[in-house]
Amino acid sequence: MYAIVDIETTGGHASANGITDIAILLHDGKSVVHQYETLINPGISIPAYISALTGISDEMVKNAPSFREVAADIYHLIGDKVFVAHNVNFDYSFLKYHLSLAGFNLQCKKLCTVRLGRKIFPGFSSYSLGKLCSRLNIVLENRHRAGGDALATAKLFSMLLEKDEDGHILQLLGRSSAEQRLPPYLQKEDIDKLPLSPGVYYFKNQKGDVIYVGKAINLRKRVLSHFTGNNPGRQRQEFLKNIHSVSFTECGTELMAFILEAVEIKRIWPSNNRAMKRFEQSFGLYLYEDQRGYLRLIIDKKKKGSCPLFSFNSLLEGRNILISLTKKFDLCPKLCFIQRNNECCNGILSNYCRGACNGDEGSAEYNARVRQALEDLKTALPSFMLLDKGRTVEEQSIILMEQGNVYGMGYLPRNYTISDINSVKTLLHPHPSNDYIRNMVLNHASRFPEKVRL
């Protein structure tokens, strides 16, 4: 038995919105055998644009029952049926959430008439309920009201049952089928193409624009994990509604997937990637010339649009490096903002400051040592290669770190002999480096020194 369901709501996600109208038609596989329909008082005001769309106003639902009052009736109608709806995950997420608040745990098999329509009537320009009904000569009355839309969906479902010569409905209802969990416009063929290897995946909207970039150790498993559960929140529901396709780039290792994800998020700036956008190291080493002509080094909090010479996770990390440079190259702690009081210079007292702070040393001589210090810091940054497994047994992956920045990564034949870094560069795809990527590579190198080649 099938329960064909349509609801009208006050908004697009269950956790902050209520149901205003519901219709349930029980279908025995041949025809509708029972109908249930009622307005519901959502307990909150209906937005004006929703009222304009559905015709349902606050006045109309003022004396209607609350969802809790009809929850038992609804659960007993649909609880042991196959839940059928046009864009089924929307209606299902609302009813599951509000039934749970009333003490009922909805666990149904689901069928989506959008997805079935794409399979059984391929090639249509649109699979919205209105366009499908028009194309298939199904009369759709009382549009955007639960009763009218449910009745049209029931007629569509009868037609789908009749025309399903390849058994798509039975396949979707099979125990091993997870297809009904997919967003309505995402093709199962896109999922089937995903390998079980590391890589980066791209969710795209109807226009083909990338709306989310993710990394994975197992591409197929990770992509499918986005569609498990029934989170009723607005963000997730909007995200799933906009997914129309998925593509991928296979990587040899998890680390390469991490790097490529970071690069692609910065390049594409997808609307649904938030955490990676916020990541930046907090402090930087800056250089400027003061009014007396002395070069000044300072560790300061990074500001938008600034270009530090080097970046650090913490003020302490940057400060310790700057202190070591002042002592190694006889720089003044006051001119480097390590000492900020008006007392006698600690560098003079410790015999490494040559008096630039007092004007006893000229700016030209002092500035030359500042430049030496920066060059020393640059050359002290590591250059190495990380060699690891490739995408196939015939190749190996390589990530090149040059003077503390990731130059790029790529793949070499397994038997390729590496003579020097410059010969490898021509075989790699350069990538823009940032603090996040650099730290990932450095941490990986420290954890797996056997993969490092100098």
Automatic annotation (TrEMBL):
GO terms for biological process: DNA replication proofreading; nucleotide-excision repair. InterPro entries: DnaQ (IPR006054), GIY-YIG_endonuc (IPR000305), GIY-YIG_endonuc_sf (IPR035901), GIY-YIG_UvrC_Cho (IPR047296), Ribonucl_H (IPR013520), RNaseH-like_sf (IPR012337), RNaseH_sf (IPR036397). Gene3D superfamilies: GIY-YIG endonuclease (3.40.1440.10), Ribonuclease H-like superfamily/Ribonuclease H (3.30.420.10). Coiled coil: none annotated. One of its GO terms (molecular function) is 3'-5' exonuclease activity. SUPFAM superfamilies: GIY-YIG endonuclease, Ribonuclease H-like. Pfam families: GIY-YIG, RNase_T. Residues 196-274 form the GIY-YIG domain. GO terms for cellular component: cytosol. DNA polymerase III is a complex, multichain enzyme responsible for most of the replicative synthesis in bacteria. The epsilon subunit contain the editing function and is a proofreading 3'-5' exonuclease. DNA polymerase III contains a core (composed of alpha, epsilon and theta chains) that associates with a tau subunit. This core dimerizes to form the POLIII' complex. PolIII' associates with the gamma complex (composed of gamma, delta, delta', psi and chi chains) and with the beta chain to form the complete DNA polymerase III complex. This is DNA polymerase III subunit epsilon. It comes from Arcticibacter tournemirensis.
